Amino acid sequence: MITITKTLVKTVAKPQQPDNINLYDSKRAYFLQEVIEGLEDAILILTEAGELLHANASAFRFCCQFNQSNSQQTFVPSPIWHLCQSLLDSCKHFPEQLVILSDEIVFDKTNVFRIRVRLLDLNWFEVPCLLVTIENRYESLKNLVLTEVKKFELTPRESEIWFLYRGNYSYKEIAAKLYITLNTVKKHMKNIHSKRQNFMTLNE
Fold first, then answer.
1. How many CB atoms lie within 10 A of CB 182?
2. Structural domain includes residue 105
3. Which of 41, 95, 151, 185 has the most CB atoms within 10 Å of its CB?
C-alpha cells in the first residue's frame, strides 16, 4: 500500500555559489560523503529518467540482494522505480508541495524494508533528482529492542523472546524457533510485561 505525505514547501533564497570549489568545500564534500556511506539506511539518488547517480554501501547491498532474488534486469529494483514514477506523477498534480511516497518490500519476517522517495531539487544538479531512502525495519527493530532490553532489565532468554515478539512472531512461533514449550514462552512474557509495567510506574 502506498501512502502519500504532503507538506507545504517553503520558498528559500538560493545561496550564492562560488566560482571555484575551495579546500573547505572539498573537505565538507568529503565529510558528507563519509556520513552518507556510514548511514545504516540505504540511500539512492536517481535522475527523473531512472539513471543512477549515487548509491551508498547499504543501497548497493540491498539492490544486489533484491536482484539476486528477482532476476532483475536493471540495478534499481522495479518496485522502487514504480514508486518513483508514482511520485513524478503526483508532483505534476501538486507542483507547489513536497510529496513523499512510501511503501514496503518484504522478503520475509527478518527482511522488511521501508522505501521512501521524494524529489530532490539541489542547486548543483542541473535537473531535479529523486532521493530514495531504504530503511531496514529489522535492523531498526533490533536497535529499539536493545534499548528496551536494557531499560526493562531483561534476562538473555527474555531478550530473545521479546525480540521475536516485537518482530510480530506469535507465541507458538517463538516456542518453535527457540525450541521451548508454549507455556515457557507465556511465563517469560508474563515476567517481561511485569518488568515493563514496573518501569512505567517508576517513571510516571
1. 13
2. yes
3. 185
Of the candidates 91, 5, 102, 105, the one whose C-alpha atom is nearest the C-alpha of residue 48 is: 91
| Interatomic CA distance for residues 76 and 66, integer angstroms | 9
CATH code of the domain in which 194 resides:
1.10.10.10
| More confident site: 9 or 130 | 130
- Position 87 in a domain: yes
Range of the domain at 170: 153-202
Q: Percentage of residues in the chain with pLDDT exceeding 90?
A: 36
| C-alpha distances in Å from residue 2, one per residue of 35, 56, 131, 164 | 29, 24, 17, 27
Across-strand partners of 34? none
C-alpha cell at 132: 530514495
According to DSSP, the residues that pair with 99 across neighbouring strands are 6
pLDDT tens, residue by residue, 20-49: 445 555 666 555 666 566 667 888 989 888
Cell of 106: 518484504
By residue count, the chain amounts to 204
Strands, E assignment, the chain: 3-8, 42-47, 52-55, 97-108, 111-120, 129-136
Residue 14 lies in a domain: yes
Q: How far is CA 73 from CA 49, 66, 69, 82, in A?
A: 16, 11, 12, 14
Question: In the chain, what is the straight-line distance between the N-terminal and C-terminal CA atoms, in Å?
Answer: 37
> Which of the pair, 191 or 13, is modelled with greater confidence?
191
State how far the Cα of 74 lies from the Cα of 21, in Å rounded to an integer. 34
